[in-house]
């Protein structure tokens, strides 16, 4: 999980719809404002640099007619928390996150990697559901972006709370986040292990060509952590950030970007 910097100005069509229908549900918004729904998804995709707000896998767009996007809109505070006549969590722009299907949708692209029939292999908002756990887990919109909260086990891809860099006051919530969102699902661990192995290969190859380690790490940080020309980041941003260590922090700090 990484910090999500959501644009302050909400999508125009969502704002307009909420003014006209302040108590409507998210489902009614989707049905009656298809243009507004598409605009919301596009803004979320841009704000999150193309990554799931929870596991950081890329939000994969459908490539064929028989596929669906590995992308849905998640309400961090459950819609069921809405009380009639009070705050409407359904249409609150700052309550909307973009997430993957958590391994539960068989018709997504790259389904052989992304889909699993095993319940213990589902993650993100799938195990979260409508449970009121928001006080116990981290909100991607509120965590610090200038420090890394998580570390990983290189040979397994397991996600851990980094006790050296994660602020002590956030460590319990960070542990709860891994557990409640099942961020150590076997599917995600396998993917992260692959990313780490590729990073290791890249570093070894550059070193074998005579490059200095510091230069290699900084070059990788520039190419893998900064958004591409479309504004998207590589899958598992925080894994890459952890692996590249101080070089990653140096490049992120000097970029001047909110990533």
Arithmetic mean pLDDT: 96
Number of strands: 4
The separation of the N and C termini measures 12 Å
Please count the helical segments: 9
Adjacency order of strands in the biggest sheet: 1-2
**Largest sheet data:** 2 strands, antiparallel
Q: Which consecutive residue ranges, at least 5 long each, have pLDDT under 50?
A: none
Estimate what percentage of residues fall within beta strands.
Answer: 5-15%
Q: Looking at the structure, what is the overall shape?
A: globular
Order of helices and strands: HHHEEHHEEHHHH
Q: Residue share in helices?
A: 40-55%
Radius of gyration: 19 Å
Structural category = mainly alpha
Can you offer a commentary on this structure?
With 259 residues, the protein is mainly α. It contains 9 helices and 4 strands. It has helices at residues 12-20, 26-32, 34-47, 111-114, 125-128, 168-180, 186-208, 213-225, 237-255; strands at residues 72-75, 96-99, 150-152, 159-161. Strand 3 and strand 4 form a beta hairpin. Helix 1 (12-20) crosses helix 3 (34-47). The longest helix is centred in the last third of the chain and has 23 residues, at 186-208. It starts with 11 loop residues before the first helix and ends with a helix. The model has no long low-confidence stretch (mean pLDDT 96).
């Amino acid at each position: 999980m990484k910090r999500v910097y959501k644009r302050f100005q909400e999508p125009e069509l969502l704002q307009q719809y909420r003014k006209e229908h302040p108590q409507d549900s998210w489902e009614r918004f989707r049905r009656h404002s298809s243009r507004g729904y598409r605009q919301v998804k596009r803004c979320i995709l841009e704000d999150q640099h193309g990554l799931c707000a929870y596991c950081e896998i890329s939000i994969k767009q459908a490539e064929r007619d028989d596929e669906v996007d590995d992308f849905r809109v998640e309400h961090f505070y459950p819609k069921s928390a809405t009380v009639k006549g009070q705050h409407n969590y359904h249409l609150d722009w700052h309550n909307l996150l973009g997430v993957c299907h958590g391994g539960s949708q068989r018709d997504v692209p790259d389904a052989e990697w992304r889909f699993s029939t095993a319940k213990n292999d589902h993650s993100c908002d799938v195990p979260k559901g409508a449970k009121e756990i928001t006080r116990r887990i981290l909100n991607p919109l509120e965590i610090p972006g200038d420090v890394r909260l998580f570390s990983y086990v290189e040979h397994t891809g397991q996600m851990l709370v980094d006790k050296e860099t994660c602020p002590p006051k956030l460590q319990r919530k960070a542990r709860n986040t891994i557990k409640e969102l099942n961020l150590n699902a076997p599917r995600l661990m396998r993917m992260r292990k692959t990313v780490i192995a590729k990073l290791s290969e890249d570093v070894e190859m550059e070193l074998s060509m005579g490059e200095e380690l510091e230069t290699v790490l900084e070059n990788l940080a520039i190419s893998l952590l900064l958004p591409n020309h479309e504004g998207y980041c590589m899958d598992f941003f925080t894994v890459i950030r952890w692996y590249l260590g101080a070089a990653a922090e140096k490049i992120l700090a000097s970029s001047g970007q909110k990533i």
